[in-house]
Amino acid sequence: MLRLTRRGLLLVAAGAPLPKAAPFVPSPNFRLTGPAAARGALVWLHEAYDPDAEPNGPPEADWVARLARDRYDIWRFDRTPHQDPLGPGGEALLRGLAGLRAARYRRVVVAGHSRGAFIALAALARPDLADAVAAMEPAAHGTSPERWRQALADFAERMRAARGVPLALAQLRDDPYEPDPDGRAAMARGAGMPLLLIDRPAAPTGHMGAAGVEFDARFGACLVRFLEMPRRGAACR
Fold first, then answer.
1. 3-state helix, strand, coil in the chain (%, to 5)
2. Which residue segment(s) compose the domain that 221 sits in?
3. pLDDT digits (tens, 9 = 90+) for 39-54
């Protein structure tokens, strides 16, 4: 059947109830089957964006379609531009994840890019709500060197709060929002969770590199394998 969302028409499997998971909305780009039929749910958190250029928000990264093909329902946490604080955003994320758990999804994965990735890190502290987190180029402090100390402190705080939820972390070359890739990689390795670290490969590069076709072609299959079956010592070759 077709149901109308605020972002357009959404295809929902006949007879599948739509779970209550505010503040999440179903992605209009994928078929929603509901928790009884789906293998799991993925919650996507996009980067900050210009609402004049993208009134409906940026689309999901290309690799997210792999999980949709693996029968994951794709949900979105669409935050309001310029009203996107990290603390309240993380709290709202956890409330939504509790809703998905209550709806009895078998598996819940959280994934985001840039600012969305930084907010997604809040789920690392809640193994009862999230089975894995993918943080693609997490960034929330701008490009000014004066703010990089705070950026590292906030990242370190989230690594200290982690409670074993597996993490896939991507950081690319030539990212002006990346204050200290070596330091962040060391923090992630020391946090004690199963970790997949995609650390400054030759390509793609730049802050938007993890969202596109080239990243999906090189790392999408490996990333999805980790999110579905995390293990220590995971690596993409």
1. 35, 20, 50
2. 17-228
3. 999 999 998 776 666 6
